[in-house]
Each structure stands twice: as structure tokens, then as C-alpha cells.
From TrEMBL:
SUPFAM superfamilies, per database record: ApbE-like (SSF143631)
InterPro entries listed in its UniProt record: ApbE, ApbE-like_sf
Known EC number: 2.7.1.180
Cofactor needs: Mg(2+); Mn(2+)
Cofactor details (free text): Magnesium. Can also use manganese.
Catalytic reaction annotation: L-threonyl-[protein] + FAD = FMN-L-threonyl-[protein] + AMP + H(+)
Record-given protein name: FAD:protein FMN transferase
Source organism of the structure: Fulvivirga sediminis
Amino acid sequence: MSASLSANAQNHAHKKVLKLMGSRFEITAVSDDEALAWQSIDACIEEITRIEKVISSWDERSQTAAINRNAGIKSVIVDPELFNLIVRAKKISNLTDGAFDVSYASVDKIWKFDGSMQGLPSAEEVAASVAKIDYHNIILNAEDHSVFLKEKGMKIGFGAIGKGYAANKGREIMKAMGITSGIVNASGDLLTWGKEADGSEWSIGIADPKNKRSVMAWLAVGEMAVVTSGNYEKFIEVDGKRYSHIIDPRTGYPVQGLKSVTIICPDAELSDALATSVFVLGKEKGMALINQLNGIECFLVDDKDELSYSKNLKLNYYKNGVAPSTDATQVNIGHEAN
Ligand code: ADP
Ligand code: MG
């Protein structure tokens, strides 16, 4: 684990950069109390590391791995924390009609995004690749908080929600320690609270999808999560059609039409899950869903580089990408894959 430290004595923002959950995390605490700031950052790192051990599906010792090993065999009693995360994930599956599904983890990776694909897989292959995905078959028992995956070969994974959950919990710990302002930035999944050291709101720069170095708009936020899904550089072209690396778990086909989706709401877990959901749902259905939800905003970029915004999104535009403040944090649309 490598970490780089930086402290800016003038504005009392203290920051650590390190790798957690396979992603680059930047954790910032704004405080006059330097010792407390560093302590809170360390506590946040410890919390995220703890969560990773519970939800990681590739760590054989995790409770999640135990659930997967026992698919089609028996139910597994897990900590209420993991149980409740799965309960919430299933709620998002219901909300999105299965566009979001943590049992996506069982997918057969028949789509290769490294240029090695010669043609499209057959319809049978595609159907078989997603045959084990169905959140209805994640059986939850609230009495003993046990989880049972009904079908052999089923798997759950938290790739599209775990980083957001961990960021939420990290922020909670820092707040409880008395840190009133900060940012947790998990590879572009941003979670802010409080205000910048100079008393202004956090400025989140949204990169122009056509030119990642230029900012096309700014969001002024307090307690908020800004999460982007989709990597617009990662797609394949087969028979003249573009396919993204995100697959619709209901059909087995890669989603078409969108380059990236950004969700803005106070809860990082929800933002994380909804970003993937809207990507799968596509422009019309995705935007319709977000416009029905109070306090959740969205903007997306389609594959023609056209932008769409949810009804109540308030962005500040700076046409030539002029930054309102130099220490603003930038979100890249289609940020690098982990
Ligand atoms: P990023 O890596 O940019 O944060 P996402 O938040 O969209 O991307 O999450 C990608 C992860 O989500 C992958 O680990 C993948 O296994 C998982 N995933 C992909 N599609 C779905 C889906 N429809 N429902 C739930 N999880 C998914
Ligand atoms: Mg996500």
C-alpha cells in the first residue's frame, strides 16, 4: 500500500492518496486541528479496508465469498451490515426493473473489450451468459440475516455499489470524529461534505467529454455525492456497431447509446448504484427514472456527445472552461477504469 501525503497549512486541507478496493482514493479532511485531521483520515482508511474484507467477492475469506460458495447448496448467516447492503441492493433492482442486479457477478465474460472479438456471439451464447443472473433468486431471511442464492453457479458482487457504500461509511467516521468538511474521492466517485476551508462551497468540475482536460461546467455542492459510470474509451465495434463495456444483465448484450452517466445526490451508495442503473436503462428510461426521484439529479453523455440533464440539476457553466477556484476538484466523465 503506497500513500502520498500533502498538507496545505494555509487552507487547512489535509489529504492522503492511496489505493483501496482496487481504486485510487483521495481522502481530504478540512480542519484547523492537524492531528485530528490525519487521525480522521486514518480512521476512514481503516473503515474502508474493513468493509473491503466483508464485501470483496474475490477474497475467499469474505462473507460474500461464503455466500457465493454455497449457491444452490445452503443459506449463509452474515453480519447485519452485509445483509442490509444486500437488502438495499435488491431495492434498487426493484426500482430499476433488474437493470441493476448484484447477481450480475455470475456473468460469463463472452464479450471481450481488448480487440480480440471477431464477430458477435450467438444468441444462445448470449442468453446462457446471463442465465444465472436474477435478483429474485437472492433469498434473504431477516430473522437470522442469512442469504441464500437459489441456483448453483449464482454469484453476487458489489462492483457497482461497494465503493459508494464504503465512501459513505468513511465520511460517517470522519464526521463522528469532528471533521465538519472534507472529500472522499474514490477514482472519480466523489463524496463531499461541509465547505471548503475558505468558507465557499465545494466546486466540482465536470470534464468535457470531448476534451477531458477542459471543464465544461461546475457544480457547487455541500454534502453531496457525484458519481460517474461508464468509460467512453472502452467500447468495441463489431459489424459497424458500437458496444460499451457495460452489459444489460437482462439481455446479455452490451448497452448501446451512452458514453457516461453522472448521478448527483447526497448518498454515495445510491449515486454509485444509480449511475450503473441509468447506464443500463439508457437515455430515455434512465432519465425518466431519475426525474421521478426527489433530490437525485443526473446528466449523461450519449455516443454522439450530446448531453442531457435531469429537470432540477443546477450547473454553473463556464463556456471556455474557466475555473472558479484553482483548488476545485475535477470529475472526469468516463474516468479511467480501475
Ligand atoms: P466503475 O468501475 O466505473 O465504478 P460501475 O460503478 O458502473 O463502474 O461498476 C462496474 C462494476 O459493476 C463491475 O464490477 C461490474 O461487475 C458491476 N456491474 C456491471 N453491470 C452491473 C449491473 N447491471 N448491476 C450490478 N452490477 C453491475
Ligand atoms: Mg458504480
